[in-house]
Amino acid sequence: MYGRALSCALLSPTTRCTIPQLIRYFARTAAAGAQQDVTTAQLPEISQYFQKALPHQEVYDLSLNNPSAFWGSLARTRLSWYRDFDDVIDCDMTKAKLKWFINGKLNVSVNCVDRHYMKTPDKVAIIWEKDEPGQQENVSYKQLYEMMNQLANTLKSHGVRRGDRVCIYMPMTPLAVAAMLACARIGAIHSVVFAGFSADALTSRINDAKAETVITADQVLRGGKAIDLKSTVDRAVLDCPCVRQVFVAQRTGAPVSMGQMDMPLESEMAKQSTECEPEVMGSEDYLFMLYTSGSTGQPKGIAHTQAGYLLYAAITHQTVFDYREGDIYACVADIGWITGHTYVLYGPLCNGATTVLFESIPTYPDPGRYWEMVERLRVNQFYGSPTAIRLLLKYGDSWVTRYDRSSLRVLGTVGEPINTEAWEWYHNVVGNGKCDIVDTWWQTETGGICIAPRPSRVAAPIIPGAAMRPMFGIAPAIVCPDSGKEFTGNDVYGALCIKLPWPGMARTIYGHHNRYVDTYFKPFQGYYFTGDGAHRDKDGYIHITGASAFDEWTTVLFNSRRRHRLGTAEIEDSMDEHGGSDVAWAPAGCAGIPHPVKGEGVYAFVTLMEDVQKDTDEIITELKSMVKKQIGSFAAPECIQITPGLPKTRSGKIMRRILRKIAANRGDELGDVSTLADPSVVPMLIANHAPIE
Ligand code: 6R9
């Protein structure tokens, strides 16, 4: 019944022309100052661009010079709509007004599942690579369709409506993917919280989103260890007056206590039909929110919308990874991270791909896990993190070379810069010198990859450790942090900004739009400010120089696929909960420090109150356990330096620049410290530098 409704509603592609024709056409009309009619100029499948090796520069220029035609054509050929959009772009970056595909109507779950279910029901949508190797399970598009619909009907029958927020706190299972898609189907906004965050962190995220429904599981399995999830949710929801129901899936079957709000997910689903009418959503309705950190303690619920996000996810997935029909594609990120949203789920499924859902860790049962999986599943694209690569290279080449990796074509990294040693090892050992290494730069806020060495087919070699080229539609700008002026030439360093809107960009911080505008659009008028620093080299390629140059983020990595962007302020706040009469310390400042494996670790400076009797080791243990409780064990500082004083300005502001240098053991690079109220603290801090554990 539903299939009929869908096929009537979907638009059929109109006339097509080739990219060179299109480019000539645009060049002509642009020269004449004419506006082209996007409905008559359909861009062909981008895959043709690969097959024919068309010049990247021309396609890229087209995407910047005529974004309406470029994205409009792609939206019409690559997504299925209930109603065509009237206009492609209605954006004003100075006001953070960001609207794409105006008045279009579609459903993301239809695009990700139904389309492929109708064409190839038995095609494998998800390979669930379970924690134990060799026990993978395939989920076909038909099975995913049915699971998603039963879950959607379950939510609906328990009163979840369009626009409601649903918190998903689950292990890496097909049910978690189905839960995200089920929300998309009924127009609910999902907020996935990484199933490693503590009860307190979960509480604040649920309350900020005002989520009434939580979906969780009994336990999560990670590297052979079972960790309770349900009991964490129980503790979290005690302080969440908004929550009225908790669905509990079974991962391990461990006994859990079921309270009045709790419902077993699988048995509720079993009562439901496998058909669920999709909600007709507007292009700009919210699809999901995802919490990330910034320079203040309060995490930000970054909100993405339906059409622009999905299109950007699909196009970047295909072009950066050279995804081709029939490939087995593996992104080993957790779904609690934006990488899991865009490149495990939405991008690949929109493209009808077979996507691997990796539940384990890179060293379980041994450091050959990834490559054994590559051999067993015949993986074509592998997308992971520099942390994992750095970790694995320490174990030596034999864990890699004993497995057949000949299926691999593209190796990707994301999340932080990849150092040359790790890049070379990834390229020479893992990829046998034959794969493209794509170092992809992007953020939760950008929705998808913005800078990466591919899709360019230019013969020029990829520069180790450089993200290099902007994606279609991305216009990077290197801006002088002091004057706010854009550097136009090459070989320049500055704040990385983006000067044109693109469809995948976040639309707001959920419930805090002013904060969104202030954080990203106020620092440099007319630009989106990424918070990162970058160098555009003499040949025009972009190298990311890191986040901490321009704000106070720190990136904490605690294993390969669960990478977290944490604000230093968030960690400081978590150590500041020691109210009451027994106050022993004043949390001072945290800074990101280079860490040999994690990439970045946390270094905390803490001052003690006078007359504190406690032993410092005891205090350090207590501080670490506070961070573990409030945020999660991955955020616990690697080093805590107890210090009698801090580098403060006369107005009392801590000079974080100095803390960062000292934490990184670069006390000789402090520069001018004359503005400090008491410069004598500096040698003291340097002398007491704490080593990384
Ligand atoms: C996708 C993701 C975003 C921040 C970003 C930057 C850092 C990401 C990077 C990179 C250097 C890369 N980052 N990719 N730095 N090279 N290839 O990671 O999203 O968790 O929001 O983090 O991560 O600092 O601003 P998110």
From TrEMBL:
Residues 57-112 form the Acetyl-coenzyme A synthetase N-terminal domain. Residues 587-653 form the AMP-binding enzyme C-terminal domain. The keyword Ligase applies. The keyword Ligase applies. It catalyses: acetate + ATP + CoA = acetyl-CoA + AMP + diphosphate. It holds the Pfam family ACAS_N. Its EC number is 6.2.1.1. Gene3D superfamilies: 3.30.300.30, N-terminal domain of ligase-like. Keywords: ATP-binding, Ligase, Nucleotide-binding. Residues 115-507 form the AMP-dependent synthetase/ligase domain. CDD domains: ACS. NCBIfam families: Ac_CoA_lig_AcsA, PRK00174.1. Belongs to the ATP-dependent AMP-binding enzyme family. This is Acetyl-coenzyme A synthetase. The lineage of its organism: Eukaryota, Metazoa, Ecdysozoa, Scalidophora, Priapulida.
